[in-house]
Amino acid sequence: MIQQEVLQRVIDIQKKKMLRLGTGFRREVLPNMPALQSHALIVTGIRRCGKSTLLQQILTSDDSKKLFLSFEDPRLFNFELPDFEILDSIIENSKIEALFLDEIQVIDGWELYIRQKLDEGFRITVTGSNASLLSRELGTKLTGRHISKELFPFSYREFLGFKGLQADEKSLQKYMNTGGFPEFLKTNNTDILTELFRDIINRDIIVRHGIRDARSLKNLAVYLVSNAGNLVTASKLQQPLNIKTAATVLDYFSFLEDTYLVNFMPKFSYSLKVQMINPRKIYVIDPGIINVASTSFTEDKGRLLENLIYWELRRHGKELYYFNENKAECDFVVMKGEKPEQVIQVCYELLPENREREIRGLTEAMDFFKTDNGLIISFNQHDAFMRNGKRIEVLPAWKFLEKSLSFY
Question: pTM for the full model?
């Protein structure tokens, strides 16, 4: 059992640290962060993407008496469910009205406490770096009592604002090289990204899930980061990476995705079974991680650009698939329910040797989904033309990324 004076001291130290950090660069998602007494606000995202800064921005906009506590503090490693009674004493003595709790999912049974505090009328914001651990508990004790939001590293628009740059080819190339992790952009020290990658693998997966074959997991993570935008199947990776079963590979996929390091995008099909048996595409959270962790010696600019577009669409909560029929592939089908919102092809540069292939992949998807408008995102080309009665626009990626908020 933790002592009350120790817990109070941790709270005071963390408060001073938060005040010292300041509110930082204003995040785009801030206006969408509701403050409700009836529901807990749950913010998830990869480590070091700025959740603490966002929390500080929410804190400063909240006029109530509030308490901040991060459970990743080493002095709280022995914190257990009964210790919440001690926290309650501090809350009562300080007349707290709002709670801001970081990485609370490390405490078994945390959702019971949150439910109790909601019932008592407190406003609650919870942040965490593991999507699965949070969602599992949210689906039991907090059903109907929470609003979930995701936070990612800086978008291109945020990158421009943070660095004081204009939207153009030059700044897009910089973004493709550095990515959007705030601390790295401040220091340009690649050790920050290297250590982040190691922490995710070691602390968030190997330690948390008790992985015995750490080497195989690390090799898989490096392989996936080195193959952003490519198709992957568990069965084909089992043997080369010396992993015992395909089921274990799938487990590793799930663990890696839970940390937000990678996402896997399925092939479009109205059949869930077809989606499950087909290869999925890998997308890596940030270009900076690719640059420090990838073992690929050849830079595939087209895949890197496609990776950026994927995460921009994910920021808007889009349901995404790739399309593949008749040996023609379209990179993104953006769905809303059972209806397509957009079909998008990503091509770094349209050239005579690839133009027909890229357009065919897009028009096959347009025909399948019965839509008359398609989009090709390139690095710097801009064009519009008709093909078989359908309109296709070619848009520079920097323009799409800068304006994408207006697309939705």
Answer: 0.94
